[in-house]
Amino acid sequence: MVRVYLVPLTAAGFLEYVDTISSLVEDSFTSAGVGLEAYKWPEVVKPSLKCYDWGRMQYIASCVVEELYKKTSTLDPEGYSLGVGMLDAYEPGLNFVFGLAVPAKKTAAVFTKRLREEYYGKPARYDLYVERVAKEVVHELGHLLGLQHCGDRKCVMSFSNSVVEVDYKTRFFCEKCAAALKTMASHHMSRTK
Ligand SMILES: [Zn+2]
Ligand SMILES: [Zn+2]
């Protein structure tokens, strides 16, 4: 069983939906034949202003992941940490990122500000928001377990550069990614027994 700690980076935009998001994420992995348990981290772990770029008014994704790693990795060294916050973030060379995974640190983050319809001047749609967040969480967890981007546009491991692409892909792994995931997860389990 793969253990994942879902860590709120902000209360708003995540804590209201954490139970639904957890079950959607667990379901995506069950469908791929991989057992995954998601736990809610008991407190909000806010990124520090050290990770904030005032010029761009965005967080630096790798800085947020590094901080999260330092704050959460000691509890369960075999588990994975994934932060979710209603924030906007970027990585050098990119205008923005929906998420970032650092497999070597078993830590990732998903930034949801641009996953909201309101960001594009449209009325809020919470069902759509929750579905998008779940897809991006599954995607980053796929990276943490060792998957690369997938060319199948319906596969959750396809790279999304816009919400249109996020909406086009499904919450599920294609057959090829599911098979690779199963192999990787069984190695993970034999390590952790
Ligand atoms: Zn990716
Ligand atoms: Zn795939």
Uncertain runs are: none
Q: Name the helicity range.
A: 25-40%
Q: Tell me the overall shape.
A: globular
User: What's the number of extended β-strand segments?
Assistant: 8
The side-by-side strand order for the widest beta sheet comes to 2-1-5-8-7
Total number of domains = 1
The first-to-last residue Cα distance is: 9 Å
Helix run count? 5
What is the succession of H and E elements?
A: EHEEEHEEEEHHH
Ions, cofactors and other bound molecules: zinc ion
The CATH homologous superfamily name equals Collagenase (Catalytic Domain)
Overview features:
five-stranded mixed sheet, 193 residues, alpha/beta, Collagenase (Catalytic Domain), globular, binds zinc ion
Commentary on this structure:
- The chain is α/β, with parallel strands linked by helices and 193 residues long.
- It has a single domain, classed as Collagenase (Catalytic Domain) (3-Layer(aba) Sandwich).
- The chain has 5 helices and 8 strands.
- The strands form 2 sheets. A 5-stranded mixed beta sheet has the order 2-1-5-8-7, sandwiched between helices. Strands 3-4-6 form a 3-stranded mixed beta sheet.
- The protein starts with a strand and ends with a helix.
- Bound molecules: zinc ion (ZN) (2 copies).
